[in-house]
Amino acid sequence: MRFDTKLVHSGQETVGPYGDLVPPIHVAATYDRFAQDPPRYFYARGENPTVEALETCLADLEDAGHCAVFSSGQAAATTVLSLLSPGQRLLCCDDVYGGTHALITGLRRYGIQVDQVDLSTPDRIRAALAQDTALVWLETPTNPLLKVIDIAEVARCAHERGAVVVVDNTFASPALQRPLRWGADVTLYSTTKFVAGHSDVLGGALVCDDPALHRAFTAHRTVAGTIPSGLDCFLVHRGVKTLSVRVERQVRTAGRLVDLLSHTPGVTSVLYPGLADHPGHEVAARQLSSFGAIIGFRYAGDVEKLLASTSLFACAVSLGGVRSLIESPALMTHRPVPAAVRAAAGITDDLVRLSVGIEDPDDLTEDLSTALANGL
Ligand code: PLP
Questions:
Q1: Does 337 score more than 90 pLDDT?
Q2: Are residues 211 and 259 both part of a single domain?
């Protein structure tokens, strides 16, 4: 099966006496051991058939051996970080989602060395991996600056040190980028975003090939209680069926909005890996099948007025859904990052992030251009 067919068919095999084309949603918290032959399900904090159906699909999408799903992207992140022990080093790219920043810097309390470094060039990658490292954490494209990191180069250098490489692939989604193919060990998703796609459910996933890593993830999930409910997995699985068609439309409209922004007075720069002058453009062209539906730009006008002036773009955190969103990383998603760290990274007050939805591209273009003029 090819990718778009897997989206619709994987984990959706017809089961049970009724021939349901959509598998039933399992909500039981516990299972009768003697009613099962052989006994397989024990307690829903550990296992649930609706959870497993989604895992089958998400693993298939990356041709991976395993997937474990979680109650949120951050629950998945917490699980990966549980691999670390005091004295070990975590290397992380310098630009990550604000919640991830808070989570990883909090590890210093447990005696873990946490270094955040710009990994957007090969020499920086090599220098950053010149010392022993247990885990390397990447986002690419990064949130919110849309830097691009060469996954294959990181994996090559990291594996020489025996480090595990985790790529948060939330911005690209499996429709545009498959990190395991480039040598990563684990792909992390906030399935809340493009994968589920409708801003109506939280979820996370860890996709990997190594059975020992997968066992560690599911064992942690069972004791930490971070498994999602059957109802939530049903929603994510329903959403993923339209991932390719949604993303294709979102990327096409993003191209039009990038064009608009590039020619609008008051927009001082546009951050989008599809632009030929983006520093990561060449790597992005190789690593991604297209350049995504998240756009950053710097605005010389009044950002708060701009955010209040759109009518179709909702001013809201999150991304990747069918509805277009606009936000200020400094005021919203990256507020947990200390101001000095934000300033050093370039997450300045003039930065605006768009998540492009599936509305009519003409309506979105008109809405944004009116709001941009209003904020000046
Ligand atoms: N990773 C990225 C890149 C994100 O943008 C977010 C949330 O915005 C997360 C992870 C966390 O996901 P969740 O909100 O599902 O916990």
A1: no
A2: no
- The arithmetic mean of pLDDT across residues 233-249, rounded, is 98
Alpha carbon 283 to its chain's center:
19
Q: What is the pLDDT of residue 221?
A: 98
Same domain, 213 and 84: yes
Strand partners, 352: 297
Return the ligand 1 atom nearest residue 202 CA: 15
Residues 204 and 80 in one domain: yes
- Full residue range of the structural domain in which residue 336 is found: 243-374
pLDDT digits (tens, 9 = 90+) for 272-294: 999 999 999 999 999 999 999 99
Q: Is 97 in the pocket of ligand 1 (CB under 6 A)?
A: yes
CA-nearest of 300, 306, 342 to 326 is 306
> Are 133 and 260 part of one and the same domain?
no
State whether the beta carbon of 170 lies less than 6 angstroms from ligand 1.
Answer: yes
Catalytic residue IDs: 45, 97, 168, 193
